[in-house]
Amino acid sequence: MMKVGVVDYKAGNLKSVETALRHIGANFFISDRVEELSKADKLVIPGVGEARAAMENLASRGLDTLIRDFYRSGRYLLGICIGIQLVFEHSDERDTTCLGLVKGNVVRFPSDMGLKVPQIGWNQVRVVRENPLFKGIESDTSFYFVHSFYPKPLDRSVILSETEYGVVFASSINQNNLYAVQFHPEKSGKPGLKLLENFVEL
Amino acid sequence: MLEKRVVVCLDVKNGRTTKGVRFKDNRDIGDPVEMAKFYYEEGADELVFYDITASAEGRKIMIDVVRRVAEVIFIPFSVGGGIGSVDDMRSVLLAGAEKVSVNSQAVKNPAIIEEGASLFGNQCIVLGLDAKRDSEMKNGYRVVINGGRTPTNLDALEWAIKAEKLGAGEIVLNSIDADGTQEGYENRLTRLISENVGIPVVASGGAGVPEHLYTVFTEGKADAALIASMVHYRKYSIREIKEYLANRGVPVRMVW
Q1: Whole-angstrom distance, CA of residue B142 vs CA of residue B105
Q2: pLDDT at B54
Q3: How far apart are CA B115 and CA B110, in angstroms?
């Protein structure tokens, strides 16, 4: 059975990702060590928090290089929440240089539109490109979001789904073997568990 | 479009869900873990647990409840009641809660909001604000603590704005006047706070029929609405409430 490594870089609580993966019967382990994670068949990069602290935590453990190498090796990765933001080139959150796997940057929701920031709650995810991550999940199903920043891919063909919150933004992306979602599948009820299952089964 | 959340509240005492007018006449109405699973499957968007046990022993039981709830539901939930330090926050979050809420303790020591937000992120820190109508206050509502029994000198709106500045990510706004009446939320209070802060406001206290949720979302400008009695006694199902809201044009999550 494929073994999923969950990257623990001390950015927030991994408990909910852990219980969700256990619930769907995934074969997984949690680690912050390059030598262990490099042996995984798939990688999940979860986390809440702030981009700069996240990048610093990754770098201090050599996990930034691990993720780049893992991507180049062709094995599947799934970034969740801050995980989708880190794969881009740059985040406006404290002017942070990110991993640079996907061309584009991460920007803040505009504050002049009367919107509450962060966006907290359930919002519809409109699938714009058919893909195995959303297999069995209807377009416009709601997922749970908590975020102040969102990704802006340069190449729009990487966008898997879009969500509207004042602006229409890329709520999930796929580039080669890399998948990433801005919402929290581990907190999005059955559709979220289904999405995690789909990733594990890729 | 971001949907309006229907949040179910469970008061927990010594590991059991209770319900009364808060802090008074509490009746045992079930196992919180089983109830959490039931509401999760019924389509609740979020759950809130209040630990109304005052003892250290009860606190340990609560952490165990949180741990078991986290194993069976895959929607966000928050835990409040007696949170007085960042260590209390940490133990609740590590047990699997998404958010932790502070109320009386934050009034006594506002720095706990700031410390919690910088350690765990703003999105984790919820301010529980109990407000009571009071014409002596600048904006018409006074902050009360200890379950409504102790008045403070704080104006409810000013406290909400201050808590946001300190780093609270959300406010659960409970009207002491409406709480337990089942006659409707305090819409004027909800709107006052919601329109003057940049973080989500969860209206609490007074829900009796689905129309009350409709008015607090539309007139009260609430981002979410807390319900308890109306579902605990099976008067309504979550689906019925959401269908009512959807039919009246309120965006709510209908597939789960």
Answers
A1: 16
A2: 67
A3: 9
Which of B76, B98, B198 is facing A117, going by the closest CB pair?
B198
How many domains does chain B fold into? 1
Give B80-121 pLDDT, tens digit per residue. 998 999 999 999 999 999 999 999 999 999 999 999 998 888
Per the domain annotation, does B208 fall within a domain? Answer: yes
Q: Which of B1, B2, B89, B171 has the highest number of chain A CBs within 10 A, making it the mutation to test binding with A?
A: B2
Closest residue by Cα to residue A121 from B41, B170, B219 = B170
What gap in Å lies between CA A60 and CA B23, rounded to an integer?
49
**Per-position DSSP letters for B147-184, written without gaps between them:** TTTEEEEEEHHHHHHHHHHHT--EEEEEETTTTTT-S-
Compute and round to an integer the Cα radius of gyration of chain B. 17
Under 8 Å CB-to-CB from A152, ≥6 apart: which residues? A88, A104, A105, A106, A107, A169, A170
CA gap B130, B186 in Å, rounded: 12
State the ipTM, two decimals: 0.93
User: Would residue B256 count as lying in a domain?
Assistant: no
Considering CB atoms only, which of A15, A116, A145 is closest to B199? A116
State the CB neighbour count (10 A cutoff) for residue A111.
Answer: 12
- Domain coverage including residue B36: 5-247
Q: How many domains does chain A have?
A: 1
In this structure, is residue B253 part of a structural domain?
no
CATH number for the domain harbouring residue A101: 3.40.50.880
Q: What is the pLDDT of residue B25?
A: 66
Expressed as residue numbers, the domain containing A131 is 4-201
Are B117 and B125 in contact by the 8 Å Cβ rule? The answer is: yes
Q: Given strand A4-7, what is the order of strands in its sheet?
A: A28-31, A4-7, A42-45, A76-80, A178-181, A167-175, A159-165, A119-127, A141-147
Tokens 């880190």 found at: A86
> Does the distance separating the beta carbons of A116 and B223 come in below 8 Å?
yes
The structure tokens 């929607």 sit at B75
Catalytic positions of A are 81, 184, 186
Say if B195 falls within a structural domain: yes
Q: What share of chain A is helix, strand, coil (3-state, %, to 5)?
A: 30, 35, 35
CATH label of the domain that carries residue B125: 3.20.20.70
